[in-house]
Amino acid sequence: MRVTRCRYNLGSAHHARKDIDRATYHFTRTIALDPNYADAHFNLGIVYQEMGELKKALQCYETASRLDPQLSEASKASRFLRQTIGTAG
Q1: pTM for this predicted structure
Q2: From 3.40.30.10, 1.10.405.10, 3.30.70.100, 1.25.40.10, which CATH number describes the 2-88 domain?
Q3: CA gap 5, 25 in Å, rounded
Q4: Cβ-count burial 65-89 (b if 16+ within 10 Å, e if not)
């Protein structure tokens, strides 16, 4: 759990510095260590959305919502992207 949290924190720090590649790497590694880490899925979704990878972002948001129904930001982001992707296609 401690290693998982450290990976998550590294992802957050790199994201704050706009280092998207490293943020993606660390959030992905966090999920590999703990597939039920809802916040990691949510933050990876944010990174994917910033990269324009909307379908990947949507998958991450939906996974985060499923894992933690109290994570309202993930539900909101998921609804927004479903509308965005729906109008883009």
Answers
A1: 0.93
A2: 1.25.40.10
A3: 14
A4: bebbeebeebbebbeebeeeeeeee
Q: In Å, how far are 7, 34, 78 from 54, measured between CA atoms? A: 24, 23, 10
Q: What is the dihedral of CA 51, 53, 10, 31, to 10 degrees?
A: 180
Mean pLDDT of 43-62: 97
Label residue 15 by pLDDT band (50, 70, 90).
very high
Token code pair at residue 15 = 């994201």
**pLDDT greater than 90 at residue 43:** yes
* AA identity, residue 22: R
Taking each continuous run of H as one helix and of E as one strand, the counts in the chain are 5, 0
Which has the closest alpha carbon to 63: 20, 30, 23, 16? 30
